[in-house]
Design goal:
Blueprint: E1 2-3, H1 8-23, E2 30-33, H2 43-50, H3 53-58, E3 64-67, H4 71-79, E4 87-89, H5 92-101, E5 106-112, H6 118-132, H7 139-156, E6 161-168, E7 171-178, H8 196-204, E8 207-212, E9 218-225
Parallel strand pairs: 1-2, 2-3, 3-4
Antiparallel strand pairs: 5-6, 6-7, 7-9, 8-9
Length: 264
């Protein structure tokens, strides 16, 4: 629960950073308590707060809620294209109830040392987890991406790595967390698609980005469409593959991330 007690326009940027720091820890959900916010929230501040919905759009496994007694603020958040992904209620209690009512994602974790064998161990872990979940169709893409992310962290961060694989409502999310302090204070930017590693991540994932952590590290994440196959007794001809450019809405400092150009 993030409590806000000031004019929203004065703290909305800090609140957005606080949301990111909270999301980096993989909580059950995040609730922004605006019950003590001074009256008269400006439209620009409400629109800035609504952009927090990008986190839920890209990864629906962690709901983000806003509790605000101001009817106008609630209506403005709900009407915003990104705000529509948020849970918007009048009280913290109702926000907590709706957060806890959302389906919890399936999550598996693996700790890795910054060793040359880490990318291979990460690939095997991801492949085994996805087979157990019946998501064999995305093993190839997810394994390539996690290999690039772990290789990057091993070479450039050199710290212990926490890898997670999470699935929720047809969406798969990979996260690689390390203790490297880079990116923690950089502004939003559009990635510069140079180098084999970043090109692989961009080409195979639906969205990817970076979240800062409270201890000065970072979480690099990638999201994939991964619906579970339904029961079928007759084979069907697959539809022609289509490629959609991934989104970079949560890429705080991704342009500074030193993705490897020649990793395995």
């Amino acid at each position: 629960i993030l409590e806000v007690a000031d004019r929203l326009s004065d703290v909305v940027e800090e609140l957005d950073l606080a949301i990111q720091l909270a999301l980096a820890d993989g909580p059950r959900g995040v609730v922004c308590d605006l019950s003590a916010v001074f009256e008269g929230a400006e439209q620009g501040a409400v629109e800035a707060l609504a952009t927090a919905g990008r986190h839920v759009r890209d990864w629906p496994g962690i709901p983000v809620a806003v509790a605000c007694p101001d009817l106008w603020v609630r209506a403005a958040l709900t009407a915003h294209p990104l705000g529509g992904h948020l849970i918007v209620t009048a009280s913290v209690l109702s926000a907590l109830s709706e957060v806890l009512a959302t389906p919890a994602p399936a999550v598996e974790w693996l700790g890795l040392a910054p060793h040359p064998s880490a990318p291979r161990a990460a690939r095997h872990f991801v492949a085994r987890t996805l087979r157990n979940w019946g998501l064999g169709r995305v093993i190839s893409s997810a394994s390539l991406v996690v290999s690039e992310l772990v290789t990057n962290s091993t070479i450039h961060a050199g710290t212990d790595i926490a890898l997670s694989v999470a699935w929720n409502a047809g969406t798969l999310r990979l996260t690689v967390r390390d203790n490297s302090p880079c990116l923690a204070h950089q502004r939003y930017s559009t990635p510069d698609l140079h180098g084999r590693g970043l090109t692989i991540v961009a080409g195979l994932s639906r969205a990817f980005g970076v979240l800062p952590t409270a201890d000065g590290g970072k979480v690099v994440w990638a999201v994939f469409d991964a619906p579970r196959p339904g029961p079928s007794t007759t084979p069907r001809r697959s539809a022609p593959a289509t490629w959609v450019s991934p989104m970079f809405t949560d890429a705080r400092g991704v342009s500074g991330l030193p993705f490897c150009a020649g990793s395995s």
